[in-house]
Write a structure and sequence with these properties.
Number of strands: 6
Radius of gyration: 19 Å
Number of helices: 11
Order of helices and strands: HHHHHHHHHHEEEHEEE
Distance between the termini: 26 Å
Structural class: alpha+beta
């Protein structure tokens, strides 16, 4: 494979020069990362929460680890104590209920929702990958669509309990769980349904027939081709690097169960059109 192809990344207009992880945005978004992924760490997350992961190391049961994680999240971010955060439940819009679980449930119901916008904006901030699509193409940073997206995100984050920091820790825990459950593996084979050729941003076709595409900065995939088929006319598969998984089915009881779903961070990837 030519080195120039391995270095292929998203266009400059689709990424920011700064992010909050240990790799440059261009590297995170590159085809080379899919071919040979490495661990991604978000700035300051693991040092701050090391006691949590030390405790998780002592537990062999995934459900027990999930329980410890939720208890830790509630305590650290005071999610069960709205008054301590200066929030009130006796208001028209109860901001105390907007937490990481609400974001995931909102995404599961509709990835184009406000919760979906917040998660996509989180990817922008932490990994530097700009949202290319949310209810429609967003276009340039000064476009009306982009301005509306930014306003929706700002309204969603207003007066929440460190919502982006909650997602930071969710990502860290997801990576921890993936490493324990799929020890020694670097990729998971996942599937996504789509409709029409315009749904794919094709960049190149490989000699083996796989297509190199640019994925939106956050997308839903499924571990099941049959489930993915319910969300489009066609289905493609992708060898997904585990560091690009934000959350997944079975992470917590009752979470993302319906479609055997995985939330996948975008960039350049080779895919196979299954049917």
């Amino acid at each position: 494979m030519p080195a120039s192809l391995a270095r292929l990344s998203v266009p400059a207009a689709a990424r920011r020069s700064l992010n909050r992880c240990n790799l440059p945005t261009e590297a995170v978004a590159s085809f080379a990362f899919q071919l040979a992924p490495c661990a991604i760490s978000l700035d300051g997350v693991l040092p701050l929460h090391q006691p949590l992961f030390d405790r998780l190391d002592m537990l062999d049961s995934a459900p027990e680890r999930a329980s410890v994680f939720r208890t830790y999240m509630n305590a650290h971010f005071m999610l069960d104590d709205a008054p301590a955060l200066g929030l009130s439940e006796n208001v028209r819009l109860d901001r105390s209920r907007m937490d990481y679980l609400r974001l995931l449930r909102g995404w599961l119901f509709d990835s184009e929702s406000r919760e979906g916008a917040i998660l996509k904006a989180w990817v922008e901030s932490r990994f530097g990958l700009l949202t290319r699509y949310h209810r429609g193409a967003l276009g340039a940073e000064d476009s009306a669509a982009r301005s509306g997206f930014d306003q929706e995100v700002a309204a969603g984050l207003y007066s929440t309990a460190g919502l982006e920091a909650q997602v930071d820790l969710l990502y860290g825990w997801t990576q921890y769980e993936l490493a324990r459950r799929f020890h020694g593996r670097t990729h998971l084979q996942l599937y996504r349904g789509y409709s029409g050729p315009k749904a794919l941003r094709e960049m190149h076709t490989l000699d083996d027939g796989r297509r190199v595409v640019e994925l939106n900065n956050l997308s839903s995939f499924s571990a099941s081709a049959e489930r993915a088929d319910e969300f489009g006319d066609r289905v493609f598969s992708c060898a997904t690097p585990m560091p690009k998984i934000l959350a997944f089915s079975g992470l917590m009881p009752g979470l993302l169960q319906g479609e055997n779903e995985y939330l996948v961070i975008g960039g350049v990837a080779a895919i196979t059109i299954e049917y």
